[in-house]
Amino acid sequence: MDAKLKFRYDNDCLPQAIIMTEALKEKNVEAKVMLIYTDKWCHAVCMYMYPKGQNQLWVWDRFWKSYRIIAWKDDPNGIAKEWMKKTLSDAKLNFAVFQE
After folding, report:
1. How many alpha carbons fall within 13 Å on the CB side of residue 94?
2. Radius of gyration from C-alpha coordinates of the chain
3. What are the tens digits of pLDDT across the range 37-62?
4. Is residue 63 part of a domain?
5. Considering its fold, how many domains does the chain have in total?
6. Which domain holds residue 48?
7. pTM for the complete prediction?
8. Residue 37 forms part of a structural domain
9. What angle do CA 69, 75, 79 make, to 5 degrees?
10. Residue 96: which of 18, 5, 10, 24 has the closest Cα?
11. Rounded to an integer, what distance in angstroms lies between the CA atom of residue 25 and that of residue 48?
12. CA 2 to chain centre
């Protein structure tokens, strides 16, 4: 399956995640865009480490804002599963990837 979200007028999560990621990077915060695919929806979020040197992983999206997540920072599936628990999603995770 192609790991890309298509931009539609009603799906602005990808540009929002990109904007947030770039803004954090300008402040020297480690950040990545992450794409989440489930059985019901696909979504783009921003994964970031803040504060610097504190090993705290956060996930931001335009609806839920920021949640602190406990997962390995290089494991997009683990991060997505934990974020979905925080946001009370009943969808089943198919996979998640970092968009480089």
Report:
1. 12
2. 13
3. 999 999 999 999 999 889 999 999 98
4. yes
5. 1
6. 19-99
7. 0.87
8. yes
9. 25
10. 5
11. 9
12. 17
